[in-house]
Amino acid sequence: MNKQREAKAAMVAELKEKLGSSIVTILADYRGMNVQEMTQLRRKLREAGVEFKVVKNTLTRRAAQELGLEGLDAFLEGPTAAAFSLNDPAAPAKILMEVMRNSKTFQIKAGVLQGRVIGQDEIKALADLPSREELLAKVVGGFQAPLAGLVNVLAGNIRNLVYVLEAVRKKKEEAA
């Protein structure tokens, strides 16, 4: 009995650490998914740097209480799986929303975004955000555009000088 209690305490500590350290955690009801679908989902999430784990509701509830997360208890009913993302808050939301659209039984319950409980609407808004790579590309493009304009302006002066020299050379050839 004592070993079971220690194992549960260790699971609560692990869940508490993951809930506290992840940027976003999304809870989902995976009922109705077969092993193949679940394996594909885990693979997609792993490629995006997201850990997907089936969790026990009572232990998750206890970990949330220790972290001071209010409002998560209502969503901890039935089979629950959690997707923990340490880097990109949009990645798990995009993948899980896609699975939810394609599956009749898979449901997203709620999430925790940087210590705050969020609902399905906010998770959908996260899924609609561009990915981190897209945002970085837009920022780099924003920095690059003025520099490219400056290079074109400077190159234009040199180009005009070459045109003038060429015209002078042709005039001298005609005069000679």
Strand and helix map with partners:
Layout (H helix, E strand, L loop, with lengths): L1 H20 L2 E6 L5 H13 L2 E6 L1 H11 L12 E6 L4 H13 L4 E7 L2 E3 L1 H9 L3 H44 L1
Antiparallel strand pairs: 1-3, 1-4, 2-3, 4-5
Helix pairs in contact: 1-3, 4-5
What do these coordinates show?
It is a single chain. The protein has 176 residues and is α+β, with helices and mostly antiparallel strands. The chain folds into two domains: 2-129, 2-Layer Sandwich (Alpha-Beta Plaits), CATH 3.30.70; 130-176. 62% of the residues lie in helices and 16% in strands. The protein is built from six helices and five strands; from the N terminus they run αβαβαβαββαα. The protein has helices at residues 2-21, 35-47, 57-67, 90-102, 120-128, 132-175, and strands spanning 24-29, 50-55, 80-85, 107-113, 116-118. A five-stranded antiparallel beta sheet has the order 2-3-1-4-5. α1 (2-21) crosses α3 (57-67). The termini are far apart. The mean pLDDT is 86.
N- to C-terminal separation?
109 Å
Architecture of the largest domain in CATH? 2-Layer Sandwich
Q: Give the class-level CATH name of the largest domain.
A: Alpha Beta
- Summed up, the helix count is 6
Strand-and-helix sequence, N→C? HEHEHEHEEHH
The CATH topology of the largest domain turns out to be: Alpha-Beta Plaits
Give the mean pLDDT.
86
Helical proportion?
A: 55-70%
Unreliable stretches covering 5 or more consecutive residues? none
Structural class: alpha+beta
Main sheet: strands, sense, barrel: 5 strands, antiparallel
What is the β-strand count?
5
Rg, Å, rounded: 28 Å
How many independent structural domains? Answer: 2
Order of the strands making up the biggest sheet = 2-3-1-4-5
- What is the H level of CATH, i.e. the homologous superfamily of the largest domain? Ribosomal protein L10, N-terminal RNA-binding domain
